[in-house]
Amino acid sequence: MKKLLIALVTLIPTLAMASGGNIHLESANIDLHDQASLQRGLDLFQNNCSGCHSTQYQRYERVATDLGIPLDEMSQKYLYGDTKIGELMENAIPEDDAAKWFGAVPPDLTLVARVRGEDWIYSYLKGYYKDETRPFGVNNTVFPSVGMPHVLQDLQGVPVKQIVKQEDGTEVTTLVATGGSLSAAEYDQVVRDITGFLVYSGDPVKLERESLGWWVLGFLFIFFILSYLLKKEYWKDVH
């Protein structure tokens, strides 16, 4: 019993953190049917995130097949050194160096969407703002005291907090970015693309499973009708 209580005490804060606590999360509105978005998300992840973060429970070949990318193109764009197309998608940074540079080893992100949720990832990537007190000069509204630099800063710019007064007199804190190569709408799409790729990575068979589910329901419905008719045939003399 004591061990169970200790486990619950340890687990509850973890679940609260994973769900985002009381932090307002923006809706990501991810569409896994949008293959073009998933392809862009893969490209953005590989070029901006994979240097530190891995998706080591995914294989290059499986991702290429699922996202409609030719294997030759996948190999040319994303494989390095002696990496083979059938290998896992690991990052290149040594763990000891990563721990030294960032204070901790950057986590694998294959399942981050299943742990945190798509809205959390989307809001996190949009939540960076300027904070000179932090080692990398930025903080995050979703993950305070974040240890990760703003790797998409060249695209978004450096967001700063601004207080905007609403018509009813209330004040709302917003983030306004300047100096980036993309507009706010374009950056939102970049973040949505990356989030979509991570949602896919966490559950690659989601669309297939959902499609199969409709066939199963259809079979059960037909089976129910046949069972009902068979029951009436067996019991017709009784009634």
Describe this structure in words.
- The chain has a domain of 154 residues: Cytochrome Bc1 Complex, Chain D, domain 2 (Orthogonal Bundle), CATH 1.10.760.10.
- It has 239 residues and is of the alpha+beta class.
- Helix 2 packs across helix 9, helix 3 packs across helix 4 and helix 7 packs antiparallel against helix 9.
- 51% of the residues lie in helices and 13% in strands.
- The strands form three sheets. Strands 1-2 form a two-stranded antiparallel sheet.
- The radius of gyration is 24 Å and the shape is extended.
The count of strands amounts to 6
The CATH superfamily title of one domain: Cytochrome c-like domain
- What top-tier CATH class of one domain fits best? Mainly Alpha
Distance between the termini: 56 Å
Pfam families: Cytochrom_C1 (PF02167)
InterPro entries: Cyt_c-like_dom, Cyt_c-like_dom_sf, Cyt_c1
Protein name: Cytochrome c1
Subcellular location: Membrane
In short:
Residues 36-198 form the Cytochrome c domain. This protein has 239 residues and is α+β, with helices and mostly antiparallel strands.
Summarize the SSE layout with pairings.
Blueprint: H1 2-19, H2 35-48, E1 55-59, H3 60-67, H4 71-78, E2 88-89, H5 95-102, H6 112-116, H7 118-125, E3 128-130, E4 138-140, H8 153-156, E5 157-165, E6 171-179, H9 184-202, H10 206-235
